[in-house]
Amino acid sequence: MQKPIYINHQHEIIVSSFLQTILGSLQDITSNRNKINDFMSSLSVIIDYHNDYNKKTTKGNYIDFINIIPINSMSCVNGFLAGIINKRNKYKCRAYKVILNELTNKIVSDLEHIKLIAE
Questions:
Q1: Quick check: is 76 in a domain?
Q2: Which residues of 11-39 are buried (b: 16+ CB within 10 A; e: fewer)?
Q3: Quick one: how far is CA 1 from the chain centroid?
Q4: Which residue, of 25, 36, 60, 93, has the fewest CB within 10 Å?
Q5: d(CA 59, CA 22)
Q6: pLDDT of 36-48, one tens digit each?
Q7: Are the CB atoms for 53 and 6 separated by under 8 Å?
Q8: pTM for this predicted structure
Q9: How many domains does the chain have?
């Protein structure tokens, strides 16, 4: 998986810890390595889109750029959870869905306050 482009160190800490939390949560729900690899493949597409955002647009929006990873990753997580839910893990999947959705809301809020500064 390609490393995301970060605007500063604070952005790197927020986004990398968010991605680690998502991956750890999904690995806790399922031990199926193929499904995790499929998720990682989708996540790579999101990160590629994030990294290429400025190259593909003439007028990039700062807020759009910093929210690409959390918002699209959470959509990917919701799809992943919908695909693996069964009678044995439905409560765990629902709990993680709520927790990760709340985390995404917090991350989006935190990212709105990041200033564009070089470090």
A1: yes
A2: beebbeebbeebbebbeebbeeeeebeeb
A3: 13
A4: 60
A5: 30
A6: 999 999 999 999 9
A7: no
A8: 0.88
A9: 1
